[in-house]
Amino acid sequence: MVDITRRTFVISGAGLLGASLLPRAAWAGSMLSAGAQPALPSLPEDAALAPREQLLFDFGWRFAFGNGADPSKDFGYGFGQSDFSKTGTFKIATPAFDDASWHERDLPHDWAVELPFVHDDSGDDDTRLTSHGYKPLGRRFPATSVGWYRRVFDIPASDSGRRIWIEFDGAMRDIVLFVNGCFIGRHDDGYSPFRFDLTDFLNYGGKNVVALRVDASFGDGWFYEGAGIYRHVWLTKMDPVHLGKWESVVRSVVKDQAATLSLATIVENEGEQPVQASIEWTIVDASGRTVAQATSPAQSIAAGSPSHYQAAADIGNPALWSPDEPHLYTVVVKVVVDNAVRDAESVPFGIRTALFDPDRGFFLNGKPLKIQGTCNHQDHAGVGSALPDRLQSFRVAVLQGMGCNAVRTSHNMPTPEWVAACDRMGMLMMCETRQMSSNPSGLHQLELMVKRYRNAPSIIIWSIGNEEWALQEGDMAKEGARIAATMVEHCHALDPTRVVSAAVNGNNEQGVSDSLDIIGFNYHLDYPDAFHAKHPKRAVFGSETSSAIATRGEYKTDKSKNTVSSYDGVVPWGESPEQWWTFYGTRDWLAGGFAWTGFDYRGEPTPYGWPSVSSQFGIADLCGFPKDYYYYYKAWWTKAPSLHVFPHWNWQGREGQDIPVWVYTNLDEVELLLNGKSLGIKQVPRLGHVQWNVAYAPGVIEARGRRNGQTVLTERRETTGAGQKLRLSADRSEIDADGQDVAIITVEILDEHHRPVPTANNAIAFRITGAGKLIGVGNGDPNCQESDKAPKRSLFNGLAQVIVQSTRDAGVIHIEAVGDESTPSSIGASSLSIKTRKVSPRPIVAEVSSKGAV
Ligand code: GAL
Questions:
Q1: How far apart are the CA of 593 and the centre of ligand 1, in A?
Q2: Cα-flanking dihedrals φ and ψ of residue 381, to 5°?
Q3: Phi, psi of 451 (to 5 degrees)
Q4: Is the separation of the CB atoms in 793 and 768 below 8 Å?
Q5: Is 703 exposed, middle or buried (0-12, 13-18, 19+ CB in 10 A)?
């Protein structure tokens, strides 16, 4: 969905609605919650407590492709009229159905990443396969756009009398759910969670069958979205008297070294008798110490009704949440009836204040904090959009490594694990909904997002949409203003503590912009100054900036190879890191901004098409390997001395030719040396870089960074010899044996002096044995069409990534790597072992040994 014309859209005259003249007070919010609670490290978000059970329903599914056009290839679905005509007769969800030919799959699962690439450039951006990263999804590809999932499971007789829900964190897309032959429900969008009450449909004391048809023929976005049940699934069992879903809310006001918490929740009585229920609130700190308690007195709740509860509690000297010190608390909420706990949950939260000031930018806990943000989609190398939880924290850490302190979840509601990782690790978030509309589904998506995540301290901005051309300034600007106003009001009602914004690619003078609490500009550095002068009481930030492009490790823009130079690649509507940060980083009244994007993502292979299959916008590539731009940000977004010289120094055949050598550093001056001979000293411009043209001679190029006349950092690039040896290194040497944790392995090739060869592109084969399995490979090359799932991968400019996942038996995972047949055997073989440790098992829905009919 990238084209140049939409950015050069001419804005005619003053806005239809005119500028907002309403005085806007500085927005203050203080709050709240969500993150890992230390006592339950394996449950990063809100956790069920006894007597509630929340069982992970990820293991042991069976999967088969259906068909979007031909019912005879879709297990007869839609062949006649019978699928929905009678309850209890839908055969795929009955024990008699034989799924022996279906494939075994654990969740999360994205089948799109398993598909071959298909070259289809028919039509325009909206119809061809570029956005899907050339994966065959859509109505023109019926054989690969529909998937069925099926699972047999036991429900013990003792569960009779409980309420039992199946809960999906999200699936892509258009699901129809059947249980025990009965149609249960539908859900369409691919990002919001959904749940169904199965209580009436279950076979207590026997086998049960769940079957889902997932249809990814339609998309929600214009970027790679994946296909299938790509987020976690849960089976939740509760007492009929229980807490409402995502109704427990903690808000805080911080004053004079103390926090006053206001606590609220809803109890639902799905029993047959009225009950007298009270709520007990216990607030514990990160070490598990109780720091406050409160009780909401008993109320009578009629059968079939909900009841609202409130309470207050004080915490003296609260440990405030911030990126530097992401302190979390947990509130344990218990529903008590006749002295017995009927339901309980633990809700992580944080205490902090957040304020957007139109003159002075963003303040966290009363201190100015520039938003050094990146926009991000949700897919990663090897796994598509089905990320194991650990990859979320891995990706947050990659971004933090360059000083990024905020992410925008463009352009959809994030996974709970991404939010939890940000809470736990101290990353701010701008949390965005997918559908910008006040229609029922748009408001429903928004409501779920706000209710689900309003306790997360990381979230500082709700975003109601991105670049809605018609609603911003097109023919529908008047309607856009009404739609946005309804959405903003809805957010405020659910969460009065946070600002609401939208990512607007325009002048923000009409349409959706009037009702926004803070104003977000996408690109267009020519707009914010004029807007600020005209609307000095409205706080402004960069909701999307930059769109710089680079191919990691490439230093020449070469259309014949679909590569983009790492020195200065940027799209016509974008800005280089230096351009946008020199703008946003030097105006105090701007709160900061979010660069497009932290990571490459599949689809939108700008500026090229086939054979490029992923974008080149990332500051890191699809695996998370940093590009050179990463170090520009590191220099200016972190305080510690930093210095990065590029390119590599393997330019055999270009002896005597000029090679541009750039240095990103936050030191005062840099001296560059070639083979020990000084090429001069240059002063580093603030927020800029220094560069030389160096006649290439093999050897060593060395940059010495000085501060106050003292050499503080030295970095060298050395001409390496040929690759001799493989090196495997893992992010961790021990992982959990829970069937979900992963080790992320970097593959490199070293020369005879153990120096990584930055130009190595050897094809490597892998063998994984023992207590784990391979779940994906990648190399960050936007033009690579090798399989993400095969046990082999070529290095791209010196690097490849292998992701291995533990089984549920503790042991050792052995990873062996060897040059495959196309690679000279001179690089030898290498191996690595990862231990998997026994952990207290996360409660799961036990697998039933039936294959096929039961
Ligand atoms: C923006 C859009 C993003 C992405 C980006 C590429 O306009 O919001 O989703 O398409 O352009 O530069």
A1: 15
A2: -55, 145
A3: -65, -40
A4: no
A5: buried
Between 37-46, 287-296, 484-493, the lowest mean confidence (pLDDT) is in 37-46
Q: What topology does CATH give the domain 725-837?
A: Immunoglobulin-like (2.60.40)
Cα(587)–Cα(579) distance, integer angstroms = 13
- Amino acid identity of residue 475, one-letter, is D
The CATH number for 243-349, chosen from 3.60.21.10, 3.10.20.30, 1.10.260.40, 2.60.40.10, is 2.60.40.10
Is residue 467 part of the annotated active site? The answer reads yes
Relative to the CA of 573, which ligand 1 atom is closest?
12
Quick one: tokens of 41?
Answer: 């490290």
Report the run of H or E that residue 393 belongs to, with start and end.
Answer: helix 389-400
Cβ–Cβ under 8 Å, residues 642 and 631: yes
Active-site entry in 467, 468, 509, 578? 467
pTM: 0.94
Range 489-525 burial, b when 16+ CB lie within 10 A, else e: ebbbebbebbbbbbbbbbbbbbbbbbbbbbbbbbbbe
Residue 410 has pLDDT above 60, yes or no: yes
Has residue 731 got a pLDDT over 50?
A: yes
Reduced 3-state DSSP string for 291-345: EEEEEEEEEEECCCEEEEEEEEEEEECCCCECCCCECCEEEEEEEEECCEEEEEE
CATH superfamily of the 50-239 domain:
Galactose-binding domain-like (2.60.120.260)
* CA atoms in the 13 A half-sphere facing the CB of 351: 26
Residues 173-201 pLDDT 10s: 999 999 999 999 999 999 999 999 999 99
Segment 799-837, tens digit of pLDDT: 999 999 999 999 999 999 999 776 656 788 999 999 999
- Starting at the earlier edge strand, list the strands of the sheet with 677-683: 677-683, 669-674, 700-707, 710-718
Atom of ligand 1 nearest to the CA of 505: 7
SS3 content of the chain, % helix, strand, coil (to 5): 15, 40, 50
Residue 432 is among the residues annotated as catalytic for this protein = no
User: pLDDT per residue over 34-87, tens digit each?
Assistant: 233 233 333 335 788 999 999 999 999 999 999 999 999 999 999 999 899 999
The residues lining ligand 1, judged by C-beta closer than 6 Å to any ligand atom, are 1-2, 466-467, 505, 522, 544, 547, 571, 596, 604
